[in-house]
Amino acid sequence: MPYLTATPGVIASAATDLAGIGSNLSAAHAAAAAPTLAVPPAAADEVSVTIANFFSRHAQQYQAQATQAAAAQEQFVRQLANGAGLYAAAEAA
Question: Could you tell me which residues come within 8 angstroms of residue 52 by beta carbon, excluding any fewer than 6 positions away?
Fold first, then answer.
């Protein structure tokens, strides 16, 4: 039968580190949003306008997916922190 060794302090520390990474990523996504969501066309011709619109739509899709990924990451961090608490309670019992 395999054994599992879990150190609640290490798990809690990992959750804190992951929360910091998520916070940094959210800040980077917010900083990138303004210049990428409204890409100005390089010229007034139809091709330049089309390419600028393409990049703006791509940025919108990226921001939507980044928001979903951030929500999943936050949920993972909450579960990890909760797990650390449960392991600590089990160790104390």
Answer: 39, 40, 41, 42
